[in-house]
Amino acid sequence: MNEQVVIVTGGARGIGFGIGTCFARKGARLVVADLDLDAASKAANELKTHGAADAIGVRCDVSVRSEVEAMIERAVAVFGRIDVLVNNAGICPFIEVMDMTPETWQQTLDVNLTGAFHCTQIAARRMIAQGDGGRVVFITSLAENVTGPAQVDYGASKGGLRMAMAGFATALGKHGITCNAVAPGMILTPMTAFHWDKPENAAFLKTRVPVGRIGTPEDIGHACVFLASPEAAYINGVTLRVDGGHQAVCY
Ligand code: NDP
């Protein structure tokens, strides 16, 4: 059992909870950082039943610098250190760009991109002070490469997040801190359930994704656990696509 201290932002549900579950099975100590304290605390308690050595829920809006500072301080106060940060918190308003307000545009960038900047910079300062390396995983998306009329803000944020990941990789590698992205394909979560609940969309999925099924939050969690493992120490600055082959299809 390793007892890595792992922070998962947006960890109360969906992909974030799947990531927490996979780390919990490895015996990690988990910090579930999310907007809703009750949901984060409930998720943390559930992660203990999956094998987490310990887990706490912390309220944190990643787009608010002071809240990120407080969340990292709490993690260190409780567990004494930080080994892994997973920048998972994200939003996707699904609004056509020509109808989008500047406020919605800004909010998407604030949460998906600037939130990861705050979390990574503040957590990495702590990892550097610890002196024995660390791991940062950024949850991007297919939308780091491809987009659509109702995902212009989202694609811009995720493309930016991919480059932020690469930039942090160049800055932090000398401290033994690796930065990589996991780009999920289509994953069934509360964010996307409204879409995949429709039979015609579910049927489309089978034709579009070579492995013929929608992804699960734990498909993403397994990739994060790998990137946080000692075996991944020389992997830095890359995106690992976990999409069942979706982006490999040329039609
Ligand atoms: P969900 O909406 O199901 O879960 C997101 C979690 O993040 C929620 O608990 C939410 O809280 C929380 N959250 C939202 N905003 C903030 C914030 N400002 N600070 C802290 N926490 C916040 O989304 P998914 O699990 O589907 O997505 C997780 C990540 O994966 C996102 O970055 C998303 O872009 C990415 N992704 C998802 C894909 C998919 O198919 N589902 C595909 C590709 C990428 P609350 O519930 O209170 O709003």
Keyphrases for this structure?
single chain; 251 residues; alpha/beta; Rossmann fold; 7 strands; 46% helix; 16% strand; globular
What's the CATH C level? Answer: Alpha Beta
Structural class: alpha/beta
Order of helices and strands: EHEHEHEHEHEHHHE
- Average pLDDT level: 96
Number of helical stretches of at least 4 residues: 8
Spatial order of the strands in the main sheet?
Answer: 3-2-1-4-5-6-7
C-alpha Rg, in Å? 17 Å
- Are there runs of 5+ residues with pLDDT below 50, and where? none
Strand content: 15-25%
What is the CATH fold-level name?
Rossmann fold
Main β-sheet: number of strands, strand sense, barrel status?
7 strands, parallel
Q: How many strand elements?
A: 7
Bound molecules: NADPH dihydro-nicotinamide-adenine-dinucleotide phosphate
Any idea what the CATH architecture is? 3-Layer(aba) Sandwich
Level of helix content?
A: 40-55%
Going by CATH, the homologous superfamily would be: NAD(P)-binding Rossmann-like Domain
Kindly report how far apart the N and C termini lie: 44 Å
Could you say which overall geometry the principal axes of the C-alpha atoms support?
Answer: globular
- The total tally of domains equals 1
